[in-house]
Write a structure and sequence with these properties.
Blueprint lengths: L2 H12 L4 H14 L16 H12 L21 H16 L2 H21 L4 H6 L3 H18 L6 H16 L2 H4 L5 H19 L7 H21 L4
Helix pairs in contact: 2-8, 2-10, 3-4, 3-8, 4-5, 4-8, 5-7, 5-11, 7-8, 7-11, 8-10
Amino acid sequence: MDPTGLLDAVLAVAAYPGAAFLALAAVAHRWLGGQGLAPRSGRIPAAGLVPALSAVVATAMLPLPGSPALRLPPPNGAAGNAVAIIVLLAVAVDLGAGSRRAAMLTGAAAVPVLGLAASVETLSVLSISAAGAPGDLGARCLVAAILLLASTLTAGGRAASVVAASLALAGASLVIPAALPGAPAAASAAACLGAVALSGVLARLRDRWTVAALTAAGGVASLAGTALALLATHP
């Protein structure tokens, strides 16, 4: 194995945008959501480790500027697979979010992403997040909005906070890098943390949204995003 590739993989999973970065985002989400910096229980239950690990690996594959994962394998790199990220997030949400509403919205967000993959004819998340057609941009914004909303609806445990932060970061990765072209990696990372912070603030309002309203909003956004993705014209 290439030692540089191994180091890049370790950094992506353990530091940025993986475990360390996700932990910071999860703490910010809990604090701004009014849940305190940590729950009272001292240990994370063993069942909570699986969704947390799934969220960490999915986050490590996101196309965030400066991510070592984008250099794997060296020297040119190969971006993460959209289907792999969707599956990992689905596992994380199903086992750790503690919310059917969050699971429903996450599933709704996956459909336009697959539509984008079909539109640009690749499963590379880097290519999907960089597709420049107006329809693609609109679809990515709708997916980001759905994931941001889903991230506000998780339960209150530590595993749920990690899952919520991962969903918010996944949504941000579809919009922020393209919105800040050429910006330093630190600036994009800070902007993504800003999306997590917004999710935490909005989480305070989650009890005001009915299941019917969320179902309607998620369904409409998913259908609209899928249509925009499939109808987008590429040069």
